[in-house]
Amino acid sequence: MSALVTGPDGLARPAWAESSGLLRGYYDTEWGVPVTDERGMFERISLEAFQSGLSWATILRKRPAFRAAFRGFDPDVVADFGEAEYDTLMQDAGIVRNARKIRATITNAQATVALRGRYGSGTGLAEFVWSFRPERTPLPERIEDVPTTSPESVALSKALKKEGFVFVGPTTMFALMEAAGLVDTHLTGSHRRGCSGLWDAEGESAGDPW
Q1: Domain total for the chain?
Q2: What is the pLDDT of residues 110-145, one digit of tens each?
């Protein structure tokens, strides 16, 4: 069973990416594009955590509110959030008001800042995450062929937890790796397959995001 749908523009996408204009735009311009800056990676880790148990469409609709509430996902600013900021976030109807996920975002901002001692400002968290990029990427023909975890996502999850991050389980980290370009799980035949430029037709590494 093919999981690709041809849209009105004649381009092939998975069915989920054709379910709304919001998801189509995200799929066509962001999903799988390499993220190599600290703030961008922190935002994606944060949003992946908030997505747990919810649809990605819900998170995308609320992303402008998330960005406003978490000050553009600036790790330095979020790391300094205290109880007053936490209380404000819990009253913000524009975001997902989940106490554990909000506290996790603050905790992860603090862990992000702490990583700079090893990797430097600007790329620290991104460089850390990219160090778990696999040597090969999947070549899925159907949605059912796309894995939900990998040895690398398990290892990344463990490493991040060791560095003080929370809400970074293996499944969530595989979703992060897909979204941030560490793996390419665009279905073969999709017009976005290979959009990162980091993999050849056989799924072997063919480039460096840096």
Answers
A1: 1
A2: 999 999 877 665 679 999 999 999 999 999 999 999
